[in-house]
Design a protein that fits this description.
The protein is of the alpha+beta class and 367 residues long. The chain has 2 domains: 4-89; 106-345, BirA Bifunctional Protein, domain 2 (2-Layer Sandwich). The chain has helices spanning 4-16, 21-32, 37-43, 50-89, 108-122, 136-139, 179-188, 228-242, 296-301, 318-326, 339-345, and strands at residues 126-127, 133-135, 159-160, 172-174, 193-202, 213-223, 250-257, 260-272, 277-279, 284-294, 310-317. Strands 1, 5, 6, 7, 8, 9, 10 and 11 form an 8-stranded mixed beta sheet that branches. Strands 2-4-3 form a 3-stranded antiparallel beta sheet. A hairpin with a 4-residue loop joins strand 8 and strand 9 (277-279). The longest helix is centred in the first third of the chain and has 40 residues, at 50-89. It is elongated.
Length: 367
């Protein structure tokens, strides 16, 4: 049997000399492994007498515990040293400027949303919101669309079953327009009312100019003595401000919408060629939105007396406005998450839209 004090000094010195984790693991095996120095000492106990076995065995177990503690302490030091070495060699210079290509962009739809809110906000309109999942009363019935109306057919509308009823008329819909917000506003607020209702809408349609989910903004004004002249003046001011033109030709064509009477579609003057669409000049016309005086039945459904109050309403697609103003040819690209497309058509985060600071940087015409 070796002198245990000398053995202890020798092993501790060997542990202290370990310089990295790989060498530490080799040292651990050499000291306390199956064929390690302390293990060999324990095997030698069989040659001793019983009293010597007991006394020496206790000392060897104490020594083994001390060596294991020394190994653990050395490992902790080596791990810290290795981590510090990595931190020194794998540094990141946080003072470097951000790469220009990593800068985010505001989507054209978000930009148009800001522009529309800024314009109508200057006119005194409030922004109103409502749920995307609607009951059929607010989405159809209250808007003068009976059960057999074509817009309620399955090919146009996404229906959601009502688990509490087997009756199809009790099923819910993913709203097909933001008009339900108008009904909910009339139910909750007494005239005068002046709101716009921007938001997502959903219909079962998909091509270059239609998608299953699109964005729409509708306006509603209700007060005493409201006329068609108020509607025309409001929309004329809107298109001039939106396209950033001093003058723009407009015309109104008779149309039909179940929730307005009389109803009209608004066209703006433009110049169309094979390669260009220029707003505000030329002999061509471009349909931009639908509008009309609120139908008396719709006022009644909202709890407003049509003999005392009148109103007008209008609706326009935000995606369509973006296509016209910024020269985007295909609506489907709005939703393809192509970073190259967004880099080309998007806006920097600091391009805030306001009537005083300017709506956009495109010079006021479609690109």
């Amino acid at each position: 049997m070796e002198n245990l004090e000398n053995l202890k000094s020798e092993l501790l010195a060997e542990i202290a000399g370990v310089s990295d984790l790989k060498a530490w693991d080799e040292c651990r095996v050499a000291l306390i492994g199956k064929k390690g120095k302390i293990t060999e000492q324990l095997k030698g106990l069989s040659a001793l007498s019983l009293e010597q076995k007991i006394e020496t065995g206790k000392k060897l177990n104490v020594l083994k515990s001390e060596i294991e503690a020394a190994l653990a302490a050395r490992k902790e030091v080596l791990e810290v040293e290795e981590l510090n070495k990595k931190l020194m060699t794998e540094t990141v210079d946080v003072t470097l400027p951000i790469r220009p290509e990593a800068q985010g962009r505001i989507h054209p739809v978000s930009k148009i949303y800001e522009e529309v809110v800024a314009i109508f906000g200057e006119m005194g309109f409030e922004v109103a919101e409502g749920p995307d999942i609607e009951d059929q009363f607010h989405n159809f019935n209250a808007l003068n669309m009976p059960a057999n109306h074509p817009a309620r057919q399955m090919q146009d509308t996404f229906y959601i079953p009502n688990k509490n009823s087997d009756d199809f008329d009790d099923s819910y819909v993913v709203r097909t327009h933001t008009s339900p917000v108008q009904i909910r506003t009339m139910e909750a607020k007494r005239p005068p009312i002046r709101i716009i209702a921007p938001g997502r809408t959903y219909r079962s349609d998909y091509d270059a100019t239609h998608t299953p989910m699109f964005h729409q903004v509708e306006g509603l004004v209700i007060d005493k003595n409201i006329t068609m002249a108020h509607l025309k003046g409001c929309l004329y001011d809107f298109v001039k401000a939106f396209f950033e033109l001093d003058e723009i030709p407009v015309r109104y064509r008779p149309s039909y919408f179940p929730f307005t009477e009389p109803s009209a579609e608004m066209d703006i003057g433009c110049l169309k060629t094979k390669t260009e669409l220029k707003i505000g000049a030329g002999t061509d016309w471009l349909e931009i939105l639908g509008c009309g005086m609120v139908h008396p039945s719709v006022l009644k459904a909202g709890g407003i007396d049509p003999d005392e109050y009148q109103g007008f309403a209008f609706g326009v697609g935000i995606d369509r406005l973006a296509m016209l103003k910024y020269g985007i040819p295909d609506l489907r690209t709005f939703f393809e998450s192509d970073i190259r497309w967004l880099k080309h058509y998007g806006f920097t985060p600091l391009d805030f839209s306001s009537m005083t600071g300017g709506l956009s940087n495109n010079g006021g015409s479609a690109r």
